[in-house]
Please model this.
Amino acid sequence: MSKPIRVLALSPIPEEGAGCRFRIAQFIPYLESVGISVTLNSLFTPEFFRRVGKRFEERMRGYQAIDAQTKAKGKSKVKLNLTT
Model:
């Protein structure tokens, strides 16, 4: 009998983050279905991730407002597209 395969997946962001879901979490059900045990741990807590994400979104809205004002005045030399 062979030893079971166990994997520890480390992510800088918790599973709530799209990067973690895209790169790691989507594969866990398949890996477990073929007998590989997966433990997913993140370096940051979900609370910390929400706080940082909220600040990032607020900052991006500010850049979007500045970009819109600059374009309205016709002074934009660099075109920024920060909308998602």
